[in-house]
Amino acid sequence: MRDIHNIVVLTGAGISAESGLATFRGPGGLWEGHRVEDVCTPEALAADPELVHRFYDDRRAALATVEPNAAHRALARLDAEWPGGLLIVTQNVDDLHERAGAKRLIHMHGELLSALCADCGDRGEWEGRLPPGTACGACDALSLRPDIVFFGEMPYRMDEIDAAIRNCDLFISIGTSGAVYPAAGFVQTARYVGAATLEMNLDPSLGSVYFEETRIGAAGTLVPAWVETLLQSTQSSPMSR
Ligand code: OAD
User: Fold this and answer.
1) Closest CA to 74 of 12, 9, 135, 129
2) 221 CA from centroid of ligand 1 (Å)
3) Helices (H), the chain
4) Is the separation of the CB atoms in 174 and 200 below 8 Å?
5) Model-level pTM greater than 0.90?
6) I want to staple 139 with a disulfide (CB 3.0 to 4.6 A). Which of 2, 120, 183, 193 is the partner?
7) Are β-strands 110-117 and 170-174 bridged in parallel, bridged antiparallel, or unpaired?
């Protein structure tokens, strides 16, 4: 038993799978029929902006057809009830964590419901279609693009994420293949600082070897059970796992 005060939760596409959103590395390695490099790189955006913008328009529109699942709701409950430090870091660009009620949340890979100005860097909420050539409200340049962190670009708020991991007692990874850095390396930082490490995934991730414990199964089942046990444990013996 270790005392647990500060928790960092990393989530990936697997946590939204039971809501009906496709994971990135599904059958054939395609994301909704596209290779990730054809829709998720600065080169792809430059080569075919119509395709890339339309792809994220479709993903944005699909948000209206899905709901948070039991795993999102359980993490929102943890956020509301955990008396210690907590940070949920998601690689997902959907809004299901916040719709479930999570507040202590960072979208490290951007958000579908946000637009980014490629000219001045301004970011703002966005709904509906975002055609290439849309004007930025801050600088008037015709350069709004989907606010998605493409391969080769720096994920958001890395300083805050790194500080939280270095200060955590428990690092848990849910529904991610461990294929994309820097997120895939967070577990190694957590191990380095002596945190407990736990993975929950449908199958062992590429980084499974770095976790002290791996629980195999669907997030919608595993996460609520884990949250329930964790919160119960704070009542019997304050803040221990
Ligand atoms: P992946 O599609 O690479 O991995 C999803 C993982 O979730 C797989 O290991 C599945 O086995 C697992 N999984 C599927 N259904 C599950 C369920 N119901 N419960 C638990 N686990 C389940 O998605 P990510 O690891 O999130 O980047 O991908 C990382 C990044 O690669 C994404 O953020 C995206 C992509 O390119 C950007 O958009 C920049």
Assistant:
1) 9
2) 17
3) 14-17, 36-39, 42-47, 49-62, 70-81, 96-100, 158-166, 186-192, 219-236
4) yes
5) yes
6) 120
7) unpaired
User: Average pLDDT for residues 105-114, to the nearest whole number?
Assistant: 98
Supply the residue whose CA is at minimum distance from atom 9 of ligand 1: 177
Q: Is 109 a catalytic residue?
A: yes
Question: Does 94 sit in the ligand 1 pocket, CB within 6 Å?
Answer: no
Largest Cα–Cα distance in the chain?
58
pLDDT tens track for 202-218: 998 999 999 999 999 99
What pLDDT shows up at residue 30? 65
* Residue having the nearest C-alpha atom to atom 30 of ligand 1: 180
User: Residue 239: what pLDDT?
Assistant: 54
Contact by Cβ (8 Å): 110, 53: no
Instruction: Tell me what percent of the residues of the chain surpass a pLDDT of 70.
Output: 95
Which two tokens mark 83? 């008396």
235 Cα to the center of ligand 1, angstroms? 33
Is the distance from the beta carbon of residue 148 to the nearest atom of ligand 1 less than 6 Å? yes
Give the type of residue at 238: P
